[in-house]
Specification:
- The chain has about 260 residues and is of the alpha/beta class.
- It has a single domain, classed as 4-Layer Sandwich (Metallo-beta-lactamase, Chain A).
- Helices cover about 25% and strands about 25% of the residues.
- The chain is built from eight helices and 14 strands.
- A seven-stranded mixed sheet has the order 6-5-4-3-2-1-14. A seven-stranded mixed sheet has the order 7-8-9-10-11-12-13.
- Helix 6 links the parallel strand 10 and strand 11.
- Helix 6 packs across helix 7 and helix 7 packs parallel to helix 8.
- The longest helix is centred in the C-terminal third of the chain and has 11 residues.
Length: about 260
């Protein structure tokens, strides 16, 4: 299984970059995980969008879904009739209504349904997508959000933490994983004055604390702006995690 970064930016894109999106490939099967702003162009640099089998969304925030409309336009308008297909679009509970409302703003109510086969996965679902096993774990963020555990046919496992604060939820989802792809949005942890219930992101050091507690092999810091000092982020993470630490970059990939 190959897991490739298409976009790793937080809510605003890096210069020349894209927001959250990852391509997962196993033999001829292709899964797109999240599709944030700028991600569709990055996908097209890697392969034909007509080859994507499934799209799996962790949560309905703009930096994880805003390139679904251009993807949908391409599927419905950019392919010859013999090439047209409708990949599955798997959404968190309530996600279909939110996305239909989004495209209805400009009068394209049926856009997503014409392009994709929409469905909503169940809370903490277990899915078989092509040759991959997917386990979804709810994690604390500002909206309903799921970490995504992907087990390859080899038995090796990568966990994408989506967006969330540090804590036992992500630790449980990532326990024993070979690779944890965890957000490092914040330059520093939230101050104690911010109630835990009001927190929805992590710093690199907090992500490393989760990785250490979960016993993962490699920590990949993602959802981190190019305006932050990546060397400082890795140094902060190193204080709490002794395993391999990397920072996600567009095009970087891991083989499992």
């Amino acid at each position: 299984m190959r897991f490739t970064v298409l976009g790793k930016s937080p809510a605003w894109q890096d210069a020349g970059g894209a927001c959250s999106s990852y391509l997962v490939e196993e033999d001829e099967y292709r899964l797109l995980v999240d599709c944030g702003n700028g991600a569709f162009g990055k996908l097209r640099e890697k392969l034909s969008y007509a080859l994507v089998d499934d799209v799996l969304i962790s949560h309905i925030h703009g930096d994880h879904v805003l390139d679904l409309p251009p993807f949908a336009y391409a599927l419905t308008l950019g392919l010859a009739p013999e090439q047209q297909r409708r990949p599955r679009l798997l959404l968190p509970p309530g996600g279909a209504t939110k996305l239909r409302t989004l495209v209805a703003i400009w009068g394209s109510e049926g856009l997503l349904d014409d392009a994709f086969r929409l469905s909503e996965y169940e809370h903490d679902a277990e899915l078989e997508l092509g040759p991959l096993r997917i386990d979804l774990h709810e994690v604390p963020h500002f909206t309903l959000t799921y970490a995504i555990s992907i087990t390859a046919p080899s038995g090796r496992r990568l966990v994408y933490g989506a967006d969330c604060r540090s804590g036992p939820e992500l630790e449980a989802a990532a326990r024993g994983a070979d690779v944890l792809v965890a957000e490092a949005t914040l330059p520093f942890p939230e101050p104690d004055s911010v109630p835990v219930a009001d927190r929805g992101h992590m710093s690199a050091g907090e992500a490393a604390g989760v990785a250490a507690a979960a016993g993962v092999g490699t920590l990949v810091l993602t959802h981190i702006s190019d305006q932050l000092d990546h060397d400082a982020a890795v140094a902060a993470a190193r204080e709490r995690f002794s395993g391999t630490i990397e920072v996600a970059t567009p095009g970087a990939h891991w083989e499992l």
